[in-house]
Design brief:
With about 375 residues, the protein is of the alpha/beta class. The chain is built from ten helices and 14 strands. The protein is elongated and about 70 Å long. The relative contact order is 0.12.
């Protein structure tokens, strides 16, 4: 089966996680860069990555890359690329993209030139003068950075964070891909007593359950490339069967969610049911002041409300102080909190055992991890 270059864009800070999971999927020549990971693979790997990647934002085909400082260079270089490999005669192929620090700065002009170049290429290959563009969507993307052009095709459609279980969400939700990263970074055990005391719409709980049960995050949804005539449809069926065979049906994992908002609790249970993990998720209305670490071990991960999001700064700081009091240092227990507040540790009352810089959308955050039972301020 023919192999080609693929790209997995991702949130800043989790490129290493994406690279590791792609290697585990048997992707070849995996290379992490800022905000994206390159790898080689066939149609099989394209389908596998879409279905199974917990941390990637989407999967793109890298059609080609080149330098262009003029529209003529852009046109000729785009026209030279093998677009017919993925675009069938009646497919729709819109163009969108970005330009950063480059001579070709006008996005509309770049879109127009690229579209014309692809049309000219396909006219020669299909011997037609007009394209109806009435069938499958093959979204062309471009990125021009310091005059270096990358031409890509999006195979995912909706972003991979859209797993299909969260039609509704509470205010200020965390992205599913980031929630999955938090779970992985905190080394959640397959038999974990897992807790999110600010569960909101249940995203962290559900991602933890999907992770513990080894359920492919994309198993319930579909992808743009599934409709392409240029990709063997049997590949998708085989990869779905493979993903289903990897599910751990015997896991004792249990996730407990608490929230002060009763509507959030209802939403959490509704989303867990849609995600197919309701047997492993419990949720109830409870304030953070009532939290107690019960049992021999436990893993807490949360995205608490913070100043400028749902609370004002003083309320947020008071909340952190409460968390510092109720999140007791105890052998077998770990607490991980994502927050953009630089004063978090000071309010919480102790330094994190480990910190990691992450981005929740465009908001720079720190992931504060507490796992030692004797950590000192």
């Amino acid at each position: 089966m023919e192999e080609y270059k693929l790209v997995a864009p991702c949130l800043l800070g989790i490129e290493g996680l994406v690279a590791d999971e792609l290697k585990q999927m048997e992707a070849q020549n995996v290379q992490a860069q800022n905000g994206r990971v390159f790898f080689d693979g066939s149609d099989e790997m394209l389908a596998r990555a879409n279905l199974n990647s917990r941390f990637s934002e989407r999967i793109l085909i890298q059609v080609g890359s080149f330098t262009a400082r003029s529209f003529e260079e852009l046109f000729e270089s785009v026209k030279a690329l093998p677009w017919e490999r993925w675009i069938a005669k009646n497919d729709a192929f819109p163009v969108k993209g970005r330009s950063l620090n480059s001579k070709l700065a006008s996005i509309p002009d770049c879109q127009s030139i690229i579209k014309k170049a692809v049309v000219e290429r396909l006219k020669q290959k299909y011997h037609v003068g007009w394209f109806e563009e009435t069938e499958a969507l093959v979204q062309i993307q471009f990125l021009i950075m310091k005059d270096q052009v990358s031409m890509m095709i999006d195979t995912s459609g909706a972003g991979l964070h859209k797993r299909g279980y969260r039609a509704n969400s509470t205010e200020a939700p965390i992205k599913e891909t980031l929630a999955a990263a938090l779970v992985h970074l905190s080394r959640v055990r397959r038999d974990a007593n897992f807790i999110d005391p600010f569960c909101g719409s249940g995203t962290i709980l559900i991602e933890a359950a999907l992770y513990a049960l080894n359920i492919a995050p994309g198993i319930q949804r579909h992808f743009s490339a599934e409709k392409w005539d240029t990709i063997d449809q049997n590949v998708w069926q085989r990869e779905r069967i493979r993903a289903q065979e990897l599910v751990r049906h015997d896991s004792s994992f249990m996730a407990h969610g608490y929230d002060i908002d009763g509507a959030a609790v209802t939403l959490t249970l509704e989303n867990a049911r849609k995600a197919g993990v309701i047997a492993h998720v419990r949720a109830e209305k409870r304030a953070i002041e009532e939290f107690k670490p019960e049992g021999e071990y436990g893993c807490v991960i949360c995205n608490p409300p913070y100043g400028e999001r749902l609370l004002d700064i003083r309320q947020a700081e008071e909340l952190y102080r409460t968390m510092g009091r109720v999140f007791e240092r105890r052998h077998g227990w770990s607490y991980s909190i994502i927050s953009p507040d630089e004063t978090f540790e000071e309010c919480f009352g102790r330094k994190a055992d480990r910190r990691r810089k992450l981005y929740n959308g465009m908001i720079k955050c720190q992931y504060y991890m507490y796992f030692k039972s004797n950590n000192i301020v």
